[in-house]
């Protein structure tokens, strides 16, 4: 790797534009972009970046009119998540929350309906929910155009549902709740135990896409995917200031998680992250074209023989010599079974002394099950990577 590229990329990481929509109770999520500021590699000024998701819709100045076009832009294992594409728009008009008897205009009322809905907002809103937000199937929560936060209370739960899109939401400071009755469908309630305090909890669900969200400072995980959830894409998110960022898989003994297929793509893993970026069990995980900066323990970990296909990522280790290793296997001391687990690093850039310990059979067919999209070369990320996290979308302009 040339010294020139290292210097340019360091400058690129540090020259990040703060969103004009200030976000409270945490460091303001940054939009990070190339030094060329939306110019393509040839300098022609194209709005396209090489990120297939964003190139699908962000060049459209009429994105507000054509909001549902987003549902056709997913990539990876969650590419079939249509959310509320085939339903009506539902406009949220109040920040109020009633876990048992939500009324028209409340976010909770929208997400529990049985029919598909594309959920949007009529102004900036900060939801402080009283209990976890239990979602019904075929819903999109689309925060584009406003500053939409879910914070300082329990947050989003998907349990035994399908076809959910979460886009453009700032989720932070989530806490535990429960031992309470919560509605999860029209005229249906259930008593909930104590929740984990995740930002977004995906439990026994499939065809889920979480895109362009910013997540920080939750009680447990930022995004947890457990209990045989599959067909998941986590993309273009900005994660920061958290210990255990993402758990993939319920437990070592829960073998049903062998069906899991999760794509983690185009995310920016920023300041203050410690570990589990992600931590994986049993299934197949495509970790592709992300940027990792300065994890405090490890970046990618796992147990129970998951397949890890790491492609085209940039791993920038901190200056602490004890945290240069990207990977961590959770095994019994002295047990070398991990050497048979299929973990590969294909085209990753390992910077500032970062190390990735590979294992298993490089030619194994398991990587086919852990492949969901074509990776861009990591060396191009400094020129093509667009904004991560919540976007500052303005009506009538490119987003």
From TrEMBL:
Stretches assigned to the Pectate lyase domain: 124-321
Keyword annotations of the record: Calcium, Lyase, Metal-binding, Signal
The UniProt record lists the keyword Calcium: yes
Superkingdom classification of source: Eukaryota
Substrates-to-products reaction catalysed: Eliminative cleavage of (1->4)-alpha-D-galacturonan to give oligosaccharides with 4-deoxy-alpha-D-galact-4-enuronosyl groups at their non-reducing ends
Entry-linked SUPFAM superfamilies: Pectin lyase-like
Signal peptide start-end: 1-20
The keyword Metal-binding appears for this protein: yes
EC number of the protein: 4.2.2.2
A Pfam family the protein falls into: Pectate_lyase_4
Cofactor stoichiometry and binding remark: Binds 1 Ca(2+) ion. Required for its activity.
Record-level Gene Ontology MF annotations: metal ion binding; pectate lyase activity
Cofactor(s) required for function per UniProt: Ca(2+)
Pathway in which the depicted protein is active: Glycan metabolism; pectin degradation; 2-dehydro-3-deoxy-D-gluconate from pectin: step 2/5
SMART domains in UniProt: Amb_all
Family membership: Belongs to the polysaccharide lyase 1 family.
PANTHER family reported for this sequence: PECTATE LYASE 18-RELATED (PTHR31683), PECTATE LYASE 21-RELATED (PTHR31683:SF18)
The protein, known as: Pectate lyase
Organism expressing this protein natively: Penstemon smallii
């Amino acid at each position: 790797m040339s010294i020139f590229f290292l210097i340019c990329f360091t400058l690129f990481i540090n020259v990040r534009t703060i969103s004009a929509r200030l976000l409270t109770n945490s460091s303001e999520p940054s939009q990070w972009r190339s030094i060329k500021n939306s110019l393509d590699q040839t300098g022609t000024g194209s709005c396209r970046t090489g990120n297939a998701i964003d190139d699908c819709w962000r060049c459209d100045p009429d994105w507000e009119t054509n909001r549902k076009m987003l549902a056709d832009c997913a990539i990876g294992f969650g590419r079939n998540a249509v959310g509320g594409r085939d339903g009506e728009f539902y406009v949220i008009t109040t920040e109020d929350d009633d876990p048992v008897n939500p009324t028209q205009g409340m976010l909770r009322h929208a997400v529990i309906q049985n029919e598909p809905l594309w959920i949007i907002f009529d102004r900036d809103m900060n939801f402080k929910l009283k209990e976890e937000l239990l979602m019904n199937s075929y819903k999109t929560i689309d925060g584009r155009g406003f500053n939409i936060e879910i914070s300082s209370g329990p947050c989003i739960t998907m349990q035994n549902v399908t076809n959910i899109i979460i886009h453009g939401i700032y989720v932070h400071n989530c806490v535990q709740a429960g031992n309470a009755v919560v509605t999860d469908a029209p005229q249906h309630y259930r008593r909930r135990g104590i929740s984990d305090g995740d930002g977004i909890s995906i439990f026994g669900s499939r065809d889920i896409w979480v895109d362009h969200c910013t997540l920080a400072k939750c009680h447990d995980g930022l995004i947890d995917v457990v209990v045989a959830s599959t067909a998941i894409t986590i993309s273009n998110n900005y994660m920061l200031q958290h210990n255990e960022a993402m758990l993939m898989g319920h437990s070592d003994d829960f073998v049903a998680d062998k069906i899991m297929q999760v794509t983690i793509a185009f995310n920016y893993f920023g300041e203050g992250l410690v570990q589990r970026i992600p931590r994986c069990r049993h299934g197949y995980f495509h970790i592709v074209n992300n940027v990792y900066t300065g994890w405090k323990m490890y970046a990618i970990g796992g147990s129970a023989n998951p397949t890890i296909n790491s492609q085209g990522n940039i791993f920038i280790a901190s200056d602490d010599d004890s945290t240069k290793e990207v990977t961590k296997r959770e095994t019994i001391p002295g047990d070398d079974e991990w050497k048979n687990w299929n973990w590969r690093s294909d085209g990753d850039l390992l910077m500032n002394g970062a190390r990735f310990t590979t294992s298993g059979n490089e030619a194994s067919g398991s990587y086919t099950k852990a492949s969901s999209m074509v990776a861009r070369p990591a060396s191009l990320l400094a020129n093509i990577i667009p904004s991560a996290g919540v976007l500052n979308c303005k009506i009538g302009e490119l987003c």
